[in-house]
Amino acid sequence: MWVRSLGLTEFKSVKKLLDQNEIAYAVSEHAPVYTSEEAAKVRGVELKTGVKALVLKTDRGSLVVGLIAANRRIDLKKLAKAIGVRKLQLASAAEVFRATGCEVGSVHPFGNLFGLPTYLDSSVLENEMVNFNAGLHTVSIQMRAKDLVKAAKPIVTDFSE
User: Fold this and answer.
1) Residues in the chain with pLDDT < 70?
2) 82: which of 29, 50, 141, 157 fits an S-S bond (Cβ 3.0–4.6 Å)?
3) What is the residue range of 34's domain?
4) pTM
5) Rounded-to-integer distance, Cα 129 and Cα 49, Å
6) What pLDDT is attached to residue 11?
């Protein structure tokens, strides 16, 4: 219950950010999803429209958020080079939770709300509309990709395989 209430807090933060920026979006509630494939199926959308938000740890110990289309794989070496660090790795589940208040798989793409630098792979922008978990495994948001960029303020680069 405690974890769910933190995710709900994050969901409310996302809604507030989008509303303040006058961004149109749709919210859907659904059965819990833990993979991009499950999320696409329950949302009734193509896998490529999903946005995976990955919390990554640099070799300096700092955290960043990497956003990538759900049908792609992240190339950690490419992103590390773009960021200017030697090495990146996925943050542990505990590190993700401490930094975001979200469980792995429910992290939303607004790293700016966590105070974390955010990098968006250009593959996400191949879609007009995108879908992502919004702090909970049971709540998704759909919105325009260009509005995601407007609200998340990421650095756009190429780091997918």
Assistant:
1) 1-7
2) 157
3) 2-157
4) 0.93
5) 7
6) 87
Nearest-angstrom CA–CA distance, 91 and 62:
10
Sheet of 139-144, strands arranged across: 25-29, 139-144, 129-133
| One-letter amino acid of 90 | L
Tell me the residue type at 112: N
Burial 77-112 (b: 16+ CB within 10 A, else e): ebbbebbebeebeebeeeebbebbbbbbbbbbbbbe
Q: How far apart, in whole angstroms, are the C-alpha atoms of residue 133 and residue 145?
A: 14
Question: How many domains does the chain contain in total?
Answer: 1
Helix ranges (DSSP H) in the chain: 2-20, 36-43, 76-83, 93-100, 111-114, 145-152
* Residue 24 per-residue DSSP state: -
